[in-house]
């Protein structure tokens, strides 16, 4: 296909082990690097590639490969970062979907446009951030979101989606539902509010304020705190394969929560504005005795039961066997079905 010159950078038989943070074995029969909307359109217009099913790959930090993807893998590598507009109430910043997320966060702060610091060190790409509305330490992407550009994988048409059109929810968006696998996000624009206000309500950040005595940290200090907190409790995928939180925190009714508290008074829970209650999935898993346990070469991280890890050479099937065993024991004890956070292929 490369020979006819219509689609650049088509690769065959690509080992995906280094393209997924879990380090799981998988091979792409065809992989195309997408560095621009124009390259993407050439793939869509191509007589063979255009008709084939597609799988969109960013940094691979929220994917569990249980087999070789049968679809053509589109590796999104659209680059570029710039300030679009300096409004009185916000800086509007744009980044290409293939930019590294953490580097982009650090860059905005260096440029003097704070607001993304609580989301520092989340692995992956800018383009995948809206897919599950990434969140950490009291901030979700949707709170810093302006709009994004997509290209439809069937028609090749471009569109710009606003905040409302993305239907963001807890680790959720339209890209996990009606647009799942149908549109490639090529650029994301952020709205970074002015004047900047630190978000320090999260318990571990409150502890940093108390420990350091810095009551009015700047964005760079918060970024460094967030990085230190994350490094202390989460495994680095470069050393131990993992995809961060493996399950979403379940949301239950106030009544169901009271019932659980009646039996397990220590359950970690957060009341939500609508009267429902979010439970800490990691606590539920730990309470079932899973921390540090393994099935085959897949295990539960010693420091955080919400994180499943590759103990070396694990297959996607082993990870799923472990995940199902955890789901069964949490359901058996608490009557709660844990829902996986990553995409299973
Ligand atoms: C150690 C660790 C810690 C983590 N901590 C957090 C955390 O605190 N908060 C959090 O929310 N997440 C966290 N995650 C999960 C992960 O980092 C995020 O989900 C991240 O946004 C995934 O980015 P990615 O580029 O690797 O996406 P991938 O894993 O490549 O893809 C994820 C999904 O998005 C789709 N996708 C990717 N790029 C595009 C695109 N350009 N257009 C359309 N669809 C696309 C893919 O098809 C797939 O369905 C963590 C992961 C790890 C390994």
The backbone outline, from C-alpha atoms, is: globular
Mean pLDDT: 94
Helicity range of the residues?
A: 10-25%
Cα Rg: 21 Å
* DSSP summary: helix tally: 8
Strand order of the largest sheet: 6-7-12-10-11
The rounded distance between the terminal residues' Cα atoms is 26 Å
SS strand fraction: 25-35%
Order of helices and strands: EEHEEEEEHEEEEHEHHEEHEEHEEEHE
Structural class by helix and strand composition = alpha+beta
The ligands bound in this entry are: flavin-adenine dinucleotide
Low-confidence stretches: 1-5
How many E-type strands?
20
Largest sheet: 5 strands, antiparallel
Q: Any overview of this molecule?
A:
With 345 residues, the chain is α+β, with helices and mostly antiparallel strands. The protein is built from eight helices and 20 strands. The chain has helices at residues 37-45, 101-111, 163-166, 203-212, 219-233, 254-263, 281-287, 316-334; strands at residues 10-15, 27-34, 54-57, 63-64, 72-76, 81-86, 90-96, 135-136, 139-140, 145-152, 158-162, 183-193, 241-245, 251-252, 269-271, 277-279, 294-295, 298-300, 307-310, 343-344. The strands form six sheets. A five-stranded antiparallel sheet has the order 6-7-12-10-11. Strand 10 and strand 11 (158-162) form a beta hairpin. The radius of gyration is 21 Å and the shape is globular. The chain starts with 9 loop residues before the first strand and ends with a strand. Mean pLDDT is 94; it is low at 1-5. It binds flavin-adenine dinucleotide. Residues 21, 56-63, 76, 97, 122-125, 127-129, 131-132, 134-136, 175, 184-185, 234, 237, 242-244, 343 line the site of flavin-adenine dinucleotide (FAD).
């Amino acid at each position: 296909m490369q020979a006819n010159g219509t689609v650049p950078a088509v690769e065959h038989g690509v080992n995906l082990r280094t393209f997924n943070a879990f380090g799981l074995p998988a091979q792409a029969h065809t992989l195309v690097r997408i560095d621009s909307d124009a390259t993407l359109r050439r793939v869509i217009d191509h007589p063979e590639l255009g008709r084939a099913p597609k799988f969109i790959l960013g940094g691979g930090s929220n994917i569990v490969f249980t087999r070789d993807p049968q679809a053509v893998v589109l590796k999104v590598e659209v680059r570029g970062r710039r300030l679009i507009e300096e409004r009185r109430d916000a800086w509007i910043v744009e980044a290409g979907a293939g930019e590294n997320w953490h580097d982009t966060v650090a860059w905005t702060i260096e440029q003097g446009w704070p607001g993304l610091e609580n989301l520092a060190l989340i692995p992956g790409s800018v383009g995948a951030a809206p897919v599950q509305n990434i969140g950490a330490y009291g901030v979700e992407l949707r709170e810093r979101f302006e709009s994004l550009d997509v290209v439809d994988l069937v028609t090749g048409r471009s569109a710009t989606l606003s905040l409302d059109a993305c239907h963001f929810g807890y680790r959720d968006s339209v890209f996990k539902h009606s647009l799942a696998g149908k549109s490639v996000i090529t650029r994301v624009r952020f709205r970074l509010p002015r004047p900047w206000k630190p978000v320090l309500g999260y318990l571990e950040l409150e502890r940093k304020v108390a420990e350091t005595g810095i009551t009015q940290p700047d964005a760079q200090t918060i970024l460094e705190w967030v990085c230190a907190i994350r490094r202390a409790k989460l495994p680095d995928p470069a050393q131990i394969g993992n995809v961060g939180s493996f399950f979403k925190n379940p949301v239950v009714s106030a009544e169901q929560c009271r019932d659980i508290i009646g039996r397990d008074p220590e359950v970690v829970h957060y009341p939500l504005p609508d009267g429902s209650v979010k439970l800490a999935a990691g606590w539920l898993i730990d309470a079932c005795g899973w921390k540090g346990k393994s099935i085959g070469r897949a295990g539960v991280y010693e420091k955080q039961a919400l994180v499943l890890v590759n103990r070396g050479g694990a297959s996607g099937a082993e990870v799923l066997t472990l995940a199902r065993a955890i789901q069964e024991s949490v359901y058996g004890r608490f009557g709660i079905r844990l829902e996986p956070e990553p995409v299973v292929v």
